[in-house]
Amino acid sequence: MGQRMSRRSLFGLGAAGAAVLGAGAVASRGMLEEEPALVAASSTSSAFPFYGEHQAGIVTPAQDRLHFVAFDVITDKRAELVDLLQEWTAAAARLTQGKDAGTFGAVGGAPEAAPDDTGEALGLPPSGLTLTIGFGPSLFDDRFGIASKRPAALADLPKFPGEQLVPEISGGDICVQACAHDPQVAVHAIRNLARIGFGKVSVRWSQLGFGRTSSTSRAQATPRNLFGFKDGTNNMKLEDADLLRDQLWASGEDGSAWMAGGSYMVTRKIRMTIETWDRSSLQEQEQIFGRDKGEGAPLGQKKEFDPVDFATKGPDGQTAIRDDSHVKLAHPSSNGGMHLLRRGYNFVDGSDGLGRLDAGLFFIAYQRDPRKQFVPVQMRLARHDALNEYIKHVSSGLFACPPGVRDAGDYWGRALFEN
What is the model's pTM? Predict the structure, then answer.
């Protein structure tokens, strides 16, 4: 990968000032002022900058593939953890720009030594790779002297009605989200970070995803989930500078100075009962979501982005959008104006012993404070959403994602470990 970097020097490690995704996509002035380090890849093979005020992979226009991993830290030495974060940061800065994970790469080192890079991405472009790190509540125990720095917003999630969480695929001390347009590039990045972390961290669980289920930029079309419905029509977008400042990025005023410019990530693996859903009538499916399946318009409206009107009547004289519909319960107007920035992916993990698809949505959402945003929204959905008949939450994660890495002298989470 490294030998091809010179032809892409335009997309260097440093910050840049404009964002363009594909022909004709123009970033607003407000977005540029808010996200000076965000450069959208001009093609699916190009690179996003690594350094900046915020981590890439949050408002970055969502790529098509995901490899997500949660690690347990197996060393109890603070210095070793800090060293690992420094090594990971240096590797991430290289990987996201299309270089090998280490200085000597996959084939440039001594023949009798293990290579610096595993090699399966040799010859591949960066493919829009972003790497985003987060720290789980369990990292803030008494091992590393950071218990007093646990943010109040990183409070453990409550138990939600109906969830059937599997502990082995939930939680974790540290997570890394790798997003790219090429699945091999994303897998390569996680594989090399895990290799670098040998003896200091172990993989707790991981998840592959395909087919983004949200748009994080207005330049992107709204994708569909495995139920066949457009997902994330009213998602926060990178162009919404004021909304992002208010509801996405943590502030020093929130009580944890080291998290200023960061965000809080919630993950939920949601298994869908695909076969039962596929036998449901179109009318029932649309009533459950509150949108039509073809256009994605709110029921009672004609176009996807028409305003949702919960007072609109249907042909039977009843409100077109039911009170137990997904769109009604999740809408900001039903949740005190709270928004989430969703960045989820479809998954298919084969089939179970009865021949049913093990498939669904790997939900990822970023926000300024999960206690005020994700928790009340999910509690309302868990109690009342008609969609619950067809889904099951089996995994959960909560992570504090620190601000971006400013330059080559910085590293992931540096402010957390400073005295």
Answer: 0.90
